[in-house]
Design goal:
PNPase, 6-stranded mixed β-sheet, about 750 residues, single chain, ExoRNase_PH_dom1, elongated, nucleotidyltransferase, alpha+beta, 17 helices
């Protein structure tokens, strides 16, 4: 028994000594940093070794006085999923900007829309460079340390995440470098400040890896020309190379050795050959049957899959079902891609540059301010426009105001993707990250065509009723039609299209051949290498987003894709113009109206009433809102013309009442009784005057319990003396008592 106690004590002492040694070793690590100098003189600093040393990787990025700490942690045991379970958490911290959250709890709650969109931006910059067989739970956490309100933290977060992954032991084929590109007076600006972005015609984020390979593109533009966008991408990619080189140097100094990743178990050659024999001809037949639509093709492929996997299970009972299933999926992908190269035709029979059949319709339902249906192949989107007052503008959270410089939005798009759109069942409720991202992209595509001085708040909804690829770009097309149907004076129509890509690689892992696909199908997105969405007008580009699934895209393919998208966009706009060419000029009966009202300073109190009671009463009776723009300028918003006419009549009465006579302190006036109460009588001294109380105590020298004791009735006239207004309540002080006392004395 004594031996076990001594042994246990010895093990405890050894554990404490080891823990102390590790603690000393960890905290004695020196910090390292590198600084990237951009062509415009601004510097990005990346450092490591100072914070969060227990994480697999940590880096702090600083640009100006904005600093972001990014940590990465990946489990050592693989997950059961057959894809990369990567989670990016980007959170805005109010303390970093010297603010206190304005919610009830005064602390950060759930992620805001801006946080979710930035998390997606970082995720899409990192995900393509993970090994294809890496399925370990990985989390990237972006923690804002300081925000100066000048430099946006999202670019810093991408670069710090890239550095943290490069320095960690997590297998990753990076690093990447990210820059924001602006365009002011046709001059490209790298990492513009928040103020510079407000005058920039381009806001583009570029993530690139070595050899100028593009990993991610995301941005919006004020209808810029295609050649200007292409120039900005080239310059941004070149600047990103400086960041990549500096991260590689930092990695050589202090990076950890990468984990040894076990090779994925290979499918037995005999089983692989059996899969090919059982399914290849059947799959090729299905994928070359151009009469099949999405549902029929999916059903046919599902039947082949079920049949083949069942036969393999019976023939090879000892085989691993997951490995066999994965091998079958790879075979389907290979056959699908090979057919595109062999035939230069797609699974629905279209040429590589051919658009699907498009149909449009507007003015769907009369009660709506604006509505449209846009159908492209088997993708169908229903859009509605609602016009409301400026009071309905979307207010942003305080930290988004600091980083974005925008306090409110009077145009916003809400995108919905219900499960029935793909013949599925599922949860319907608060929108997910994917829906939020698609809606934000479509909103960027339409925002430049909205006039800045439009007097209403615009809410555009886009509900996907059928989906077979490119629903976000269909939302741009349908939204543009709905805006014109609602009479919004847009500068021009906008349309969007998605471009796909299928590549072949040589033995050196370089792209040897490729096919660019215009107007992407859902299956082409799933089995392809790229989903490149471009929106714009006939003149230029308004929004761009590239989801790239391979480890970088050469600039040549990017430029070619942009050109094909621009050509397709022009064809779509021609079809849309056949439906509606310009914003509707004839007003609908249910359209809201707005007018400006100038009020003379001395009449402003009449319009407002005590505590704004007149405007509240006006809204309750007519639904008309009156908001003050300047000292004497008001804006009237009415849901329709009849409500406006009724409201103007009421306002006219408020403003044209007779002028209030100047009452002299101590003066005697004739008062008319308008109401008899228990405590006194309500009287008026002049037409239009609010009734004032003449209290029982001021009616007579004698004590009066009720006005009826003196025979007072409604409509009766009596003499009263005016003693000004009460300094606290502001009510008139009137008395009949002093006049009766004077008569008694005579």
């Amino acid at each position: 028994m004594l031996f076990f106690r001594v042994n246990r004590r010895f093990r405890r002492l050894f554990y404490l000594w080891k823990l102390e040694r590790n603690h000393f070793h960890t905290h004695s690590t020196s910090s390292h940093e590198i600084t990237t100098n951009f062509s415009n003189g601004r510097n990005l600093t990346l450092s490591t070794g100072q914070y969060a040393r227990l994480a697999d990787g940590c880096a702090v990025g600083t640009l100006g006085d904005t600093s972001v700490m990014v940590t990465v942690v990946s489990k050592t045991k693989p997950s059961s999923s057959n894809f990369l379970p990567l989670v990016v958490d980007y959170r805005q911290k109010s303390a970093a900007a010297g603010r206190i959250p304005t919610n009830f709890f005064r602390r950060e709650l759930g992620p805001t829309e801006r946080e979710i969109l930035t998390s997606r931006l970082i995720d899409r910059s990192l995900r393509p460079l993970f090994p294809s067989n890496y399925n370990f739970d990985t989390q990237v956490v972006c923690n804002m340390l300081a925000v100066d309100g000048v430099n946006n933290p999202d670019i810093i977060s991408i670069n710090a995440a890239s550095a943290a992954l490069a320095l960690s032991d997590i297998p990753w084929n990076g690093p990447v470098g990210a820059v924001r590109v602006g365009l002011i007076n046709e001059e490209v600006l790298i990492n513009p400040t928040r103020k510079e972005l407000q005058s920039s015609s381009l806001n583009l984020v570029i993530s690139s890896t070595k050899k100028n390979l593009i990993v991610m593109l995301e941005g919006n533009a004020n209808n810029i020309l295609l050649q200007d966008l292409q120039k900005a991408i080239k310059v941004g990619s070149k600047e990103a190379q400086h960041i990549i080189n500096d991260i590689e140097n930092l990695q050589k100094q202090t990076g950890k050795p990468k984990r040894v990743l076990e090779l994925a178990p290979k499918l037995n050659e005999e089983i692989s050959e059996a899969l090919r024999t059982l399914s290849q001809m059947r799959l090729r037949e299905i994928l070359q049957n151009y009469s099949l639509d999405k549902i029929a093709r999916d059903v046919a492929l599902s039947e082949v899959r079920t049949n083949v996997l069942e036969q393999i299970r019976l023939t090879f009972p000892d085989s691993d079902g997951n490995i066999v299933s994965d091998g079958y999926n790879k075979l389907v992908k290979q056959i699908f891609r090979n057919l595109v190269f062999e035939k230069d035709l797609r699974c629905d029979g279209r040429d590589l540059d051919q658009l699907r059949d498009i149909s449009c319709q507007v003015d769907m339902y009369k009660p709506l301010h604006g509505s449209a249906m846009f159908q492209r192949g088997q993708t169908q989107v229903f859009c509605t426009v609602t016009l409301d007052s400026h009071e309905s503008a979307m207010k942003l959270d305080p930290l988004s105001i600091v980083t974005g410089g925008i306090k409110e939005k009077n145009f916003f798009l809400h995108y919905e993707f219900p499960p029935f759109a793909t013949k599925e069942t599922g949860r319907i409720g608060p929108i997910g990250r994917r829906e939020m991202g698609h809606g934000a992209l479509a909103e960027k595509g339409l925002n430049p065509i909205i006039p800045s001085d439009f007097p209403f708040t615009i809410r555009l909804t886009s509900e996907v009723l059928e989906s077979n690829g490119s629903s976000s770009m269909a939302s741009v097309c349908g939204g543009s039609l709905a805006l014109m149907d609602a009479g919004v004076p847009v500068n021009t129509a906008a349309a969007g299209v998605a471009i796909g890509l299928i590549t072949q690689y040589d033995d050196s892992d370089n792209i040897s051949d490729y096919r660019i696909l215009t107007d992407l199908l859902g299956i082409e997105d799933y089995l392809g290498d790229m989903d490149f969405k471009i929106a714009g007008t006939k003149k230029g580009i308004t929004a761009i987003q590239a989801d790239i699934k391979i480890a970088g895209l050469p600039l040549k393919i990017v430029m070619e894709s942009l050109q094909k998208a621009s050509d397709a966009k022009g064809k779509i706009l021609q079809i849309m113009n056949d439906c509606i060419k310009k914003p509707r000029s004839t007003k609908k009966d249910n359209w809201p109206v707005t007018e400006k009202l100038d009020v003379e300073p001395h009449k402003r109190a009449k319009l407002l009433g005590l505590g704004g009671i007149n405007l509240k009463k006006l809204f309750a009776e007519t639904g008309v809102q009156v908001s003050q723009v300047e000292d004497t300028t008001f804006q009237i918003f009415a849901p329709n013309q009849s409500a406006m006419d009724e409201a103007k009549e009421i306002i006219q009465k408020l403003l044209t009442t007779e002028r209030v006579p100047d009452l002299e302190f101590g003066g005697v006036y004739k008062a008319t009784i308008v109401e008899v109460r228990d405590i006194g009588v309500m009287v008026t001294l002049y037409p239009g005057m609010p009734p004032a109380l003449l209290h029982n105590s001021q009616l007579d020298q004698r004590k009066v319990a009720h006005p009826s004791a003196l025979g007072l009735e409604v409509g009766q006239e009596l003499q009263v003396k005016y003693f000004g207004r009460d300094p606290v309540s502001g009510l008139m002080r009137l008395s009949r008592k002093v006049l009766t006392a004077a008569k008694s004395a005579v």
